[in-house]
Specification:
Layout (H helix, E strand, L loop, with lengths): L7 E6 L8 H10 L3 E6 L9 H8 L17 H8 L2 E7 L1 H9 L5 H7 L5 E5 L3 H5 L1 H12 L3 E2 L3 E4 L5 E5 L3 H12 L8 E6 L4 E2 L5 E2 L6 H12 L3 E6 L14 E5 L3 H9 L6 E4 L6 E3 L19 E3 L3 H7 L2 E3 L2 E3 L1 E6 L5 H12 L3 E5 L9 E8 L2 E9 H15 L1
Parallel strand pairs: 1-2, 1-3, 3-4, 4-5, 8-11, 8-13, 11-12, 13-18, 18-19
Antiparallel strand pairs: 6-7, 9-10, 14-15, 16-17, 19-20, 20-21
Helix pairs in contact: 1-2, 1-8, 3-5, 4-7, 9-13
Bound molecules: cytidine-5'-monophosphate.
Length: 403
């Protein structure tokens, strides 16, 4: 799936050492289907050459506003008129100061001033420069002017210092640009999500878990942030990275057991939507051993199980109705081996929730693909096989209409 298909992006590069990452960024944008038109400042060309960017994008690279080979010499107007967005990465402190004042003394700043499309900046600078009052004034002004800032991040810097000012990684910038273009029906909404498996300890080294990878729940978390929501993600043991982490829109709590997942989830039920995506163990071990259980010849230990709390059921009990709408809108998930629709609908009624999403097909575990059956009070609807992120986006749009 290409998430930037048919998008025309002007990629501006200003003078900073992070410019070496712009080559990778151009490639990632193109992999997502965007066409990339690069514009470089004079300083940027000290770090990476126009030829590199031209070879990667397959488009001529613009570096000067005094180019007599461009018809009517109006590149600054034409480039921004044709673009869906201007993305500047890296955006240096100097460039940000100029843009915040509306200066236009080279091609890149001129086309930003002449634009009628969104402008996004990925700042990159030394931490003292970032923290300087002058740069923070630029940030305030640019935000007031509705310029989107992607990052910066904190971490090791080329100058040897550690701190705020590092450019986001190209993959993070790409993901944030993709998010920028998505519809925002959940702006200002809070979404609670459980994801992944749980782990029920037998002793300090052994436990019972399941094959859930967490991919579907994490895809829903990403799609919810893309749609403008603030997300609280309760994740069972899985090694997935928090999606769109640098946006600060996802708060993640890692848990192991169903009991821990229950506690973390119940502390966050003040929300608009709850997606119970986690594959929660139905039973835990009554008394996990404090020490590793030793082999006892041919005798196997007797494990006593106890029923775990039903998180979805308990969240559904907290639902409040105001002005004819009930919050949180609860969405359960069901992976059944037989009679999916029948069992999933029974589950919906038993838990007293408005929607259940059935995973069609036996092989969704760990896969990037899935196929969904959405069941609510009005009936059922199939969503055809696709990448989990694509399905998650469709599901989010559907649920957004319900609330
Ligand atoms: O109860 P059952 O496992 O059949 O239903 C699955 C749905 O219920 C999923 O949405 C799952 O996340 C949720 N669930 C839960 N707590 C449990 C068991 C399942 O939230 N203890």
């Amino acid at each position: 799936m290409q998430s930037l298909l048919n998008k025309k992006i002007v990629l501006g590069i200003s003078g900073g050492i992070a410019a070496y990452k712009s080559a990778e960024l151009a490639r990632l944008l193109m992999q997502e289907g965007a066409s990339v038109q690069v514009v470089m400042t004079e300083a940027a060309q000290q770090f990476v050459t126009p030829v590199t960017m031209q070879a990667l994008t397959g488009n001529p690279v613009f570096t000067s506003q005094w180019d007599s080979s461009v018809a009517n010499n109006m590149a600054h107007i034409e480039l921004s008129r044709a673009a869906d967005a201007i993305l500047i990465a890296p955006a240096s402190a100097d460039l940000m100061a100029k843009l915040s004042l509306g200066l236009a003394d080279d091609l890149l700043t001129t086309l930003c001033l002449a634009r009628d499309c969104p402008l996004l900046l990925a700042p990159a600078m030394n931490k003292q420069m970032w923290e300087h009052a002058a740069t923070q004034r630029s940030v305030t002004r640019l935000t007031q002017d509705k310029v989107a800032l992607l990052g910066p991040a904190s971490g090791a810097q080329a100058c040897g210092e550690v701190g705020m000012g590092r450019m986001l990684e190209p993959a993070e910038i790409t993901d944030q640009l993709i998010a920028f273009f998505q519809k925002k029906p959940l702006a200002g909404k809070k979404v609670l999500i459980t994801a992944g498996p749980t782990f029920e300890a037998i002793d300090p080294v052994r436990g019972i878990t399941n094959r859930s990878s967490g991919k579907m729940g994490f895809a829903i978390a990403r799609a919810a942030v893309e749609a403008g929501a603030q997300v609280y993600l309760v994740a069972g043991p899985c090694d997935l990275e928090t999606p769109l982490d640098a946006t600060g829109m996802i708060t993640r709590t890692n848990v192991m057991s169903a009991k821990e997942m229950h506690a973390a989830t119940m502390s966050a039920t003040d929300c608009d939507i709850f997606f119970a995506v986690a594959a929660v163990a139905d039973w835990g071990i009554a008394k996990p051993a404090k020490e590793k259980i030793k082999r006892q010849g041919k005798r196997a230990p007797n494990l006593e199980f106890i029923a775990n709390p039903d998180i979805l059921l308990d969240v559904a009990k907290t639902v409040k109705t105001t002005a004819g709408k009930s919050y949180p809108y609860c969405v359960g998930f069901a992976a059944e081996s037989t009679d999916l629709e029948k069992h999933a609908n029974e589950k919906r009624k038993r838990k007293g929730i408005p929607m259940v999403v059935g995973n069609i097909g036996p092989d969704t575990f760990g896969s990037d693909l899935n196929q969904l059956l959405i069941i609510d009070e009005s009936g059922s609807k199939k969503i055809a096989k696709a990448e989990k992120l694509q399905l998650a986006r469709q599901l989010i749009q559907l649920v957004a209409k319900k609330i």
